[in-house]
Amino acid sequence: MQRHLLVAAVLATLSLLVSGQTDFFYKLSLQWPPSVCGPSQCGSPIPRTFTIHGLWPQFVTNDRPVPPYNPTTNKCTNVTPTAPGQILVPLKPIQDQLNELWPSLLKQTTNVAFWRHEWEKHGMCSDYPDKPHDYFTAALDLTTTYNPLEGTEVKPRQDPYKAIEIREAIKAKLGKYPEISCGKVSNTIQLKEIRLCFERAKPPVVLRDCPTKYSNQCSDDDNQVKFPPATSEVLEF
Ligand code: 5GP
Questions:
Q1: Nearest to residue 52, comparing CAs of 151, 147, 175, 150?
Q2: Residues 129-154: what's their mean pLDDT?
């Protein structure tokens, strides 16, 4: 009996490896508008709260994004996924919330174009290939549930923080480690995104540690990372 179970487990693992399908988790990427918006890149007013960049399925084995749907080279689902050009009608009931929490910060792109890009790149091979409404709702719900730095000691200011202070503040608040992603403006490292990781589920709700600690322009616990205030607050200093 036990031998049968072992054989079944080995076969299941082998078939996963052969098919290239491994399990994934979800990464919610929240961006800090004052860091994303260089001079004149964004429309005004620039939001003063974290906004959504995306909800990304990431392979557990290597923390790389699940690649986008392709009918010949990456047919990741048995259902027919909703095409990016078709998402607006299903998103109508949540469009106001999306405009508020998931705006395209960069004014060269409309909100709808940004959502289509995220859907095409990350949504069509998620657990919601034909349910854009549910995929976007999952991201909205997580964002309203988890405001990673609210109520912590880490607040926007001119003086930088050590990168580890930001990570630890979030771990203390949420119980799990985030990924911190940074940008650089004239040699100053800035906090650009906070990424929270969730176990794969429909919808994702259970937080897990993010496998990657730092990405892009930060790489080390000791990096000096600025969490810049919104522009008008800068002028007040
Ligand atoms: P990904 O395509 O993997 O979701 O994210 C990377 C891309 O998202 C980059 O090309 C970056 O410029 C873009 N991006 C990040 N934030 C925004 C935004 O607020 N609006 C738009 N249009 N693109 C964004």
A1: 147
A2: 98
On average, the pLDDT of the chain sits at 90
Domain map (residue ranges) of the chain: 2-226
- What are 37-88's pLDDT values in tens digits? 987 899 989 999 999 999 999 999 999 999 999 999 999 999 999 999 999 9
Fold of 2-226: Ribonuclease Rh; Chain A (3.90.730)
Judged against a pLDDT cut of 60, whether residue 235 lies above it is answered with no
- Judge contact between 229 and 34, C-beta under 8 A: yes
Residue 43 carries which side chain, given as an amino acid letter? G
Does the CB atom of residue 119 touch ligand 1 within 6 A?
Answer: no
Contact criterion met (CB below 8 Å) for 85 and 67? no
Are the C-beta atoms of 15 and 69 separated by less than 8 Å?
Answer: no
Is 122 considered catalytic here? yes
C-beta neighbour count of 110 within 10 angstroms: 12
Q: Are 113 and 42 in contact (CB under 8 A)?
A: no
**Is 193 a residue of the active site?**
no
The answer to whether the CB of 27 falls within 8 A of the CB of 197 is yes
Number of the ligand 1 atom closest to the C-alpha atom of 29? 4
What residues are paired with 226 via a beta bridge? Answer: 190
Could you report the per-residue pLDDT of 221-234, keeping only the tens digit for each?
A: 999 999 999 875 44
